[in-house]
Design goal:
The protein is α/β, with parallel strands linked by helices and 380 residues long. The chain folds into 2 domains: 17-250, Aspartate Aminotransferase, domain 2; 253-378, Aspartate Aminotransferase, domain 1, CATH 3.90.1150.10. The chain contains 14 helices and 13 strands. Strands 1-9-8-5-4-2-3-12 form an 8-stranded mixed sheet, sandwiched between helices. Strand 2 (77-81), helix 4 (86-93) and strand 3 form a beta-alpha-beta unit. The longest helix is centred in the C-terminal third of the chain and has 18 residues, at 253-270. The mean pLDDT is 97. The structure holds pyridoxal-5'-phosphate. Pyridoxal-5'-phosphate is lined by residues 58-60, 84-85, 87-88, 130, 156, 158-159, 180, 182, 193.
Length: 380
Amino acid sequence: MTTATIPFNYPHMTGKELYYIAEAHFGGKLAGDGPFTRNCHRWIEERAGCRRALLTHSCTAALEMQSLLLDLRPGDEVVMPSYTFVSTANAVVLRGGTPVFVDIREDTLNIDETLIEDAVTPRTRAIAPVHYAGVGCEMDVIMDIARRRNLKVIEDAAQGFMATYKGRQLGSIGHLGAYSFHETKNVISGEGGALLVNDPEMVLRAEIIREKGTDRSRFFRGEVDKYTWQEAGSSYLPGEIIAAFLWAQLEEAEKITACRLALWQRYHEGLADLERRERLRRPVIPADCVHNAHMYYILLPPRVDRQKVLEGLKAAGIHAVFHYVPLHSAPAGRRYGRVHGAMTRTDDLSARLIRLPLFADLTHDAQDRVLQTLERLLDR
Ligand SMILES: *Cc1c(COP(=O)(O)O)cnc(C)c1O
């Protein structure tokens, strides 16, 4: 008997995507900033409580916009975790800046906020917290360092959509934030993202940078009588087809999140006994954080061969994966970045982590198979 493979991820469709795409199609408005884009902007602004939300064609694009908005110059430094996706660092490197990597916390795998201040130099311009797995960084501490040292905070909230820290939405706490709507995230548009502008002084420039460096957005609001080239910018906005798809997803964002949280909790309870027997460690959610079930990961004990566990899962038809190769140890990270302090926890935890299949349409049967397989593989 063969059992179907359980994929690591499967994009969830709400069913309304094609309907809204057809509406955009028949509406004859396909470029960016049409009615669907405006709906998405308003929804995110109300939901996240940010001053301005702007759809982008990816989170990577939103992170690049953050660097342009900060006017990062060659030699400028941005403090960030090494345990993150390449886009956090690329956005800085593309402006000639230097990512400065510090170690992560043992519990959440987020940047260790107690190490940030020591990494600050006269060249430091910003702190880039990354909310790993949709679990908030210690933002109060980070914002306080930024205030005292006159730095900007640029949140990589790619995984943090619909999650909160002390009641505030991730991405809305720093000066700037960024979401991803990539197919692998919770709420999706294939490729897609959003820039969150929380600092009111940066709103106008964000619109300009996103529209090829022109004040086209103001022109369409009737605030200027012609639009002209204002500063260096690019094209970061998605077309209406993408926004129409995303609108269908935003309408269901609560439901998608609730569904993922229930599955996350089911993993969490199902793995409690293995944790008690010290065969794995489960994720830790600090009391100040409400997460969004973006990810369920396990940490293997140091002595366990991760590759063997992944192969065992694969043999049982389960596609589980590891995650980031720490940037400080990657070729480009060594070339462009700088390490501040020890990377002990980054190196150790990243090598022991496995992400389990988690998506809105994961069945309980499939999930039980993952749990039973882990029980068999780790109970040695
Ligand atoms: C997914 C992700 C990104 C990139 O998002 P895209 O929309 O694919 O550009 C950046 N940072 C983190 C932490 C991510 O998880």
